[in-house]
Design brief:
The chain is of the alpha/beta class. The protein has two domains: 21-212, Rossmann fold (3-Layer(aba) Sandwich), CATH 3.40.50; 227-285. It is 44% helix and 14% strand. The strands form three sheets. Strands 2-5-8-1-9 form a five-stranded parallel beta sheet. A two-stranded antiparallel sheet has the order 3-4. A two-stranded antiparallel ribbon has the order 6-7. The longest helix has 17 residues, at 249-265. It is globular and about 60 Å long. The N and C termini lie close together (5 Å).
């Protein structure tokens, strides 16, 4: 579905100092070849880049794809775009709350004779991205705790009179591997992730380069706080959401943040019309 008034998908803004397609593919271990990426791949590549520009603000990405070479390539590109030192952690769908949120380090507590807290996976991922394979199988409680972490930007625990809080500003990549007969991804999580992309029908021949390099992501992050979004663009994006029947206020807010991230990647200090249209296509359509 395209935004009203747009005859075709807007051309993505070109990030500055971009490397050639063949160079990027070669860096990621793919054979040098001329490629004509599928539109679904282009959207997914941009979702990965934007998620690394503003992980916590945009929530993350729902990727519909089973495990395989296409998903592996997308994940490698995502990892390559993360600035050095930022965590990329995998979260099992069936993870215990204590491992997810943190708890008491029993060994250290017994040794020291006082409560010693131990961070969980989400706190360990602060500032980075959490990968969730088989996200459609997440228990409702686990999905709710992930959603709470995205909303609050922190996690913690209370147990036997002890409590601890840790910062947890993260992005989430939820891999939906379900079939038509499976339950959908829990709405509590899906609604908080800006981008929903589908790689299920793609082959490697239909894939292409990453949308940005790690250096371009770092440059976009520096520019992002200064990027302005005028009232006209704000009203236009909200109007597109209404015309598309998107009732969620959260979706409109995510589209506005995405527009600023797209502008930053393009080297703009103000959101342009093409930036806003692309945000509408990626987040609202």
């Amino acid at each position: 579905m395209k935004p009203a008034g747009a005859a075709s998908a807007p051309k993505p803004p070109r990030a500055p100092a971009a490397r050639g397609t063949a160079d990027r593919l070669d860096t990621l271990g793919m054979a040098r070849a001329e490629v004509d990426p599928d539109p679904a791949w282009i959207d997914a590549a941009w979702a990965a880049a934007l998620c690394t520009v503003d992980p916590a603000g945009l929530g993350g990405v729902v990727v519909r794809a089973a495990a395989g070479p296409v998903r592996d390539l997308w994940t490698r590109q995502l990892q390559a775009q993360l600035p050095a030192g930022e965590p990329l952690r995998r979260m099992p769908a069936r993870i215990a709350d204590e491992r997810l949120l943190g708890g008491l380090d029993l060994t250290a507590t017994l040794q020291l004779g006082r409560p010693v807290a131990q961070r969980g996976l989400l706190a360990e991922s602060h500032g980075g991205i959490v990968l969730v394979p088989m996200a459609e199988r997440l228990p409702p409680g686990t999905a709710a705790r992930l959603a709470s972490a995205l909303d609050q930007g922190e996690v913690g625990f209370e147990r036997d009179g002890s409590s601890q809080r840790w910062p947890c500003r993260i992005g989430v990549v939820a891999f939906d591997e379900g079939t038509a007969d499976d339950a959908p991804l829990p709405a509590a999580l899906a609604d908080r992730l800006a981008f929903h992309v589908n790689l299920a029908q793609l082959s490697l021949r239909q894939c292409g380069a990453a949308a940005a390099s790690a250096e371009e992501i770092v440059a976009a992050r520096r520019l992002w706080p200064a990027v302005t979004l005028g009232d006209e663009m704000t009203q236009a994006l909200c109007g597109i959401a209404m015309r598309l029947g998107v009732a969620s206020l959260r979706a409109s807010v995510l589209a506005l943040r995405a527009a600023r991230a797209i502008a930053a990647l393009g080297g703009h200090d103000e959101v342009q019309e093409d930036d806003a249209l692309m945000a509408a296509r990626l987040v609202l359509a």
